[in-house]
Amino acid sequence: MRTAVIILNWNGKNWLDKFLATVVQHSPEVEVIVADNGSTDGSLEWLNEFHPNVRAIQLTENHGFAGGYNLALAQVDAERYVLLNSDVEVTPGWLVGIGDYMDRHPEMAACQPKVLSHHEPGHFEHAGAAGGFIDRNGYPFCRGRIFEITEKDSGQFDDEQEIFWATGACMMIRADAFREAGGFDADLFAHMEEIDLCWRLRRTGWRIGYTSNAVVKHVGGGSLGYGSPRKTYLNFRNSLIVLTKNLHTGWFWWWLFRRLVLDGFAAMKFLLEGHAAHAWEVGRAHRHFFYRLPHVLRQRKALLLTERNPNLTGMYHRSIAYDRFILGWKSFAQLDKEAFR
């Protein structure tokens, strides 16, 4: 089978009930699979009753996004995987759009569609928007989303574009590229794992793309809400791990120190806004990062030995935090285009 759509589910029966029928309807001639990450809400029983023709892969416990997909995809025989969040509504022709893009661009390991908000379909959604990038300090952002600001979709990203990373909410990836990269880093558990994977793929010569010829609508926060302190912890911890593993520069320790200082300002901002729990999670993320640092440095060394493309293009060589919170830039169009190099 050429393409398989794999939905990783964890206690998302309500999302499956809301969106799975549409996925099946708009995904003809491909296999749709639900990989269950040890749910306790009756997801598998519901699937067997209402969608007996959808294949289920049962995992015995919650392995997170990264570990869960690694285990599930090892059981799927396809040339291309489509990773799809359970809280995503697909639209007619979505698979044709991203599949055609991959056909025309064999150099692309993965690509993503346009990701709009399910709550506000006229706006981009936080997780992916119109393609992901990363700044010099390891902070991710998207075309259509700078930190908490999401742009209105007025056709400004109706194009095809090479990007730095594709969203795990809806990503088509070649199976051989996924296996070549070793899959997701299961240590990350959840959040930033797709950025890490795309960065590693780019370091070995693959490219990552975006096409607006496919559109999906993402609720966002289906498994872990955007306002959750747990999400803050995972984002800050994993961002440090991903930066340490992948940033190729002789001044690495300086870059890391600067990033830690910026995280400190972020924690202070949380405190001033009355979000003490989030500030605490930033500190906890730092503690756990340093606990894991020896292992992460071994990963960094191994990646440097296999790297074939150290001079990556597409990184934003400015501070996106400075541009957003000091200069007040709120849209992708305001960013310094000369800094993408």
Radius of gyration, rounded? 19 Å
Which segments are poorly predicted (pLDDT under 50) over 5 or more consecutive residues? Answer: none
Beta-strand content bin: 15-25%
Could you state the CATH homologous superfamily of the largest domain? Spore Coat Polysaccharide Biosynthesis Protein SpsA, Chain A
Overall number of strands: 13
- Indicate the CATH class of the largest domain: Alpha Beta
What is the CATH topology assignment of the largest domain? Spore Coat Polysaccharide Biosynthesis Protein SpsA, Chain A
Instruction: Summarize the biggest pleated sheet.
Output: 9 strands, mixed
Q: What is the number of domains?
A: 2
What spatial form do the alpha-carbon principal axes imply? globular
User: Architecture of the largest domain, according to CATH?
Assistant: Alpha-Beta Complex
Measure the end-to-end span: 38 Å
Class by SSE composition: alpha/beta
How helix-rich are the residues, as a percent range?
25-40%
Salient structural properties:
2 domains, alpha/beta, 20% strand, 341 residues, two-stranded antiparallel ribbon
